[in-house]
């Protein structure tokens, strides 16, 4: 069995297998499962052996096996068939459990987890968890099993620095602190078995105050801990290219500082990027800091006004604000990431990539986890006012991405990568060109369960909510509302996107001059179970307010297309509710009878003609655990037309 690679942090289950929500457990029925670790506590560097066993004295059945890890203070991870990934799915699919079946503590599956790999990287209480369901469903067949264990850090030492009362001729103890961090870093020796923490008292650490020298050059196993980010200030005073540097360093933390005044203005590498923190092939934890007002020239594709990260960093709970990169083709006003980092719960606000991409955050040729951040009011001159992803497969989950802008493509997100864009709020972003909310180009992203509202694409530009350019993304279960495009596709625009899938989306109240809801230029997407309603076509063309096509033909089924002057332009539909008198097998033209429900305005009245009027079963459509009705009745039998909401 694969040991797995810790890659993508996930929300385990939307309304089904969320492991945290399963605590306390449910009543058992049928087979049982038990999960164990080979010890109760571990030190960093240990390998944790995890095993599963089970028994069954009830009916023989097939089951799916889910395994997750609950870590303190971070989202839950899940183990899939190909390792630890961001895609929801069981670890083992459809395994047969005979009757009788008994394995006791002898495992039927096991795997090893290195204890220093994210999210197991700090001391504290952790849990492995496992549960069984019937294959492909959320129907539990056993209690949740938990395996608690602790991580404890190796014994180490503590030294102290105080800019006001310290002296570099002292011994660095709590009662006789050193004066400069520079001297402390040069003086301490650390190892994996003997880490060192440098405790830094409140004060301003700068050349003009305590004679501090920048950049501060970190060491492996040596952590910097400020008293408080508001009062412990590292200020390079625009006289050094970086405030902090990390070259090939591992296992250290930087926390509770204001980090400011880095000025990377040289054309020599690396002194044109990473003005706040420059990390090269390093694995720091950068936590609870304010990283602000740093400036990087960039150039040659580099950047990172606040942070440049090439390594395996954890960047968590920081405020990254008002940082900037300057030159054309430079990236990442706030963060430049070229490694599989974990970027969680940060406020990334007011940063600029003046001539390039990724005003808030830029990722290149890597698969980072970007989870739970607020990314707001950033600007990029070229692409991705909020986020710009180039290649590989980043996970962008549970973020608020709002009020970002770009002169180019992708006001909220610009994506040249197979990204998983999941459960974000992408609102009020703007682009000078295409993709006010999201711009996807060439690579096939997965865009699911997002709220995409109030975004705008510029004059003569396409895709107010989402723009798909020469790619075939999977767009599912999103609310795409109140977006605008100066040209085509107020909600969604597809250009040369032959195999795009647009499934179970709510596309309403968007504006554009052609295809205010959805526009297809030279594309053949599959559009199913969408509610496309009350979109408005504007001048100068004022056509195809619902769905518009040119040099293409989408396959449209099981949708409700209603409330437009022109529902379908140069395309046809089957098994849809269309207000206009468009012919097509299974089409109806009666009022769908929308009502207000728990999550929106487009539920169906129990007497709606759209109920049980589709072309296939709800199970075949993958919608049997969702609803079109305000009372939350799950869809069963023949699928209902239109958008399906999650169960309340």
Model description:
The chain has a 29-stranded parallel beta sheet that branches. The protein has a 23-stranded parallel beta sheet that branches. Strands 2, 4, 5, 6, 7, 10 and 11 form a seven-stranded mixed beta sheet that branches. The radius of gyration is 27 Å and the shape is flat. With 648 residues, the chain is mainly beta. The chain has one helix and 69 strands.
Q: Low-confidence spans: pLDDT under 50, at least 5 residues? A: 1-28
Describe the main β-sheet briefly. Answer: 29 strands, parallel
Q: How many distinct helices?
A: 1
Mean pLDDT: 88
Main structural class = mainly beta
Give the count of structural domains: 3
Tertiary shape: flat
Q: How far from one another are the termini?
A: 38 Å
Give the helix proportion (percent range).
under 10%
How many strand units?
69
Estimate what percentage of residues fall within beta strands: 35-45%
Radius of gyration based on Cα positions: 27 Å
